[in-house]
Amino acid sequence: MNEIEFLGVSITEWFGYAASLAVLVSFLMKDIKTLRYVNSLGCLLFVVYGVLLDLSIPIVITNTAILGINFYYLFIKKKV
Fold first, then answer.
1. Which of 76, 71, 75, 44 is nearest to 60 (CA)?
2. What region, left, alpha or beta, does residue 50 occupy, with left being phi > 0 and alpha being psi -120 to 50 degrees?
3. Separation between Cα atoms, residue 52 and residue 42, nearest integer Å
4. Is 70 exceeded by the pLDDT of residue 2?
5. What residues form DSSP beta bridges with 9?
6. What are phi and psi of 6, to 5 degrees?
7. Do the beta carbons of residue 43 and residue 16 sit within 8 Å?
8. This model's pTM is above 0.90
9. Cβ partners under 8 Å of residue 34, min gap 6
10. Which of 23, 55, 62, 70 has the most CB atoms within 10 Å of its CB?
11. 3 alpha carbon, distance to own chain's centre
Protein backbone atom coordinates (compact mmCIF):
# COMPACT_ATOMS: atom_id res chain seq x y z
CA MET A 1 0.00 0.00 0.00
CA ASN A 2 1.31 3.45 -0.90
CA GLU A 3 1.27 5.51 2.29
CA ILE A 4 0.65 9.26 2.15
CA GLU A 5 3.58 11.24 3.57
CA PHE A 6 3.92 14.69 5.07
CA LEU A 7 7.43 16.11 5.51
CA GLY A 8 8.82 12.68 4.67
CA VAL A 9 6.89 10.96 7.49
CA SER A 10 3.90 8.70 6.91
CA ILE A 11 0.47 9.79 8.13
CA THR A 12 0.39 6.65 10.27
CA GLU A 13 3.59 7.69 12.03
CA TRP A 14 2.23 11.23 12.54
CA PHE A 15 -0.75 9.73 14.39
CA GLY A 16 1.65 7.72 16.55
CA TYR A 17 3.76 10.79 17.35
CA ALA A 18 0.69 12.92 18.12
CA ALA A 19 -0.75 10.19 20.35
CA SER A 20 2.52 9.82 22.24
CA LEU A 21 2.80 13.58 22.71
CA ALA A 22 -0.78 13.88 23.99
CA VAL A 23 -0.30 11.06 26.51
CA LEU A 24 3.01 12.56 27.65
CA VAL A 25 1.50 16.05 28.03
CA SER A 26 -1.46 14.61 29.94
CA PHE A 27 0.87 13.61 32.76
CA LEU A 28 1.97 17.22 33.15
CA MET A 29 -1.57 18.27 34.08
CA LYS A 30 -2.20 19.20 37.73
CA ASP A 31 -5.97 18.89 37.48
CA ILE A 32 -7.12 15.25 37.18
CA LYS A 33 -10.08 16.20 34.98
CA THR A 34 -7.80 17.96 32.49
CA LEU A 35 -5.41 15.02 32.65
CA ARG A 36 -8.26 12.66 31.70
CA TYR A 37 -9.39 14.84 28.78
CA VAL A 38 -5.89 15.18 27.32
CA ASN A 39 -5.15 11.51 27.96
CA SER A 40 -8.41 10.59 26.20
CA LEU A 41 -7.27 12.54 23.15
CA GLY A 42 -4.01 10.60 23.19
CA CYS A 43 -5.85 7.29 23.53
CA LEU A 44 -8.18 8.19 20.66
CA LEU A 45 -5.18 9.01 18.49
CA PHE A 46 -3.59 5.71 19.50
CA VAL A 47 -6.74 3.85 18.45
CA VAL A 48 -6.55 5.52 15.02
CA TYR A 49 -2.83 4.69 14.90
CA GLY A 50 -3.55 1.05 15.75
CA VAL A 51 -6.16 0.83 13.01
CA LEU A 52 -3.81 2.42 10.48
CA LEU A 53 -1.19 -0.19 11.37
CA ASP A 54 -3.42 -2.78 9.67
CA LEU A 55 -5.35 -3.24 12.91
CA SER A 56 -2.85 -3.70 15.71
CA ILE A 57 -5.20 -5.39 18.18
CA PRO A 58 -3.09 -4.77 21.35
CA ILE A 59 -2.89 -1.03 20.67
CA VAL A 60 -6.59 -0.73 19.84
CA ILE A 61 -7.84 -2.82 22.78
CA THR A 62 -5.61 -1.18 25.40
CA ASN A 63 -6.39 2.37 24.36
CA THR A 64 -10.11 1.69 23.91
CA ALA A 65 -10.17 0.34 27.48
CA ILE A 66 -8.35 3.41 28.82
CA LEU A 67 -10.78 5.64 26.89
CA GLY A 68 -13.65 3.80 28.57
CA ILE A 69 -12.12 4.31 32.01
CA ASN A 70 -11.59 8.02 31.34
CA PHE A 71 -15.16 8.33 30.03
CA TYR A 72 -16.48 6.64 33.18
CA TYR A 73 -14.67 9.03 35.53
CA LEU A 74 -15.40 12.13 33.45
CA PHE A 75 -19.07 11.60 32.67
CA ILE A 76 -20.58 8.82 34.82
CA LYS A 77 -18.95 8.95 38.22
CA LYS A 78 -18.22 12.72 38.09
CA LYS A 79 -16.54 12.62 41.53
CA VAL A 80 -12.87 12.80 40.64
1. 44
2. alpha
3. 15
4. no
5. 6
6. -135, 120
7. no
8. no
9. none
10. 70
11. 21
d(CA 70, CA 26): 12
CA 38 to CA 52: how far, in whole Å?
A: 21
Domain ranges in the chain are 9-77
Sign of CA dihedral 39, 50, 48, 74: negative
For the chain, what is the mean pLDDT? Answer: 92
**Phi and psi torsions of 4, nearest 5°:** -75, 140
Q: Model confidence over 45-69: pLDDT tens digits?
A: 999 999 999 999 999 999 999 999 9
Buried b (16+ CB within 10 A) or exposed e, 34-73: ebbebbbbbbbbbbbbbebeeeeeebbeebeebbeebeee
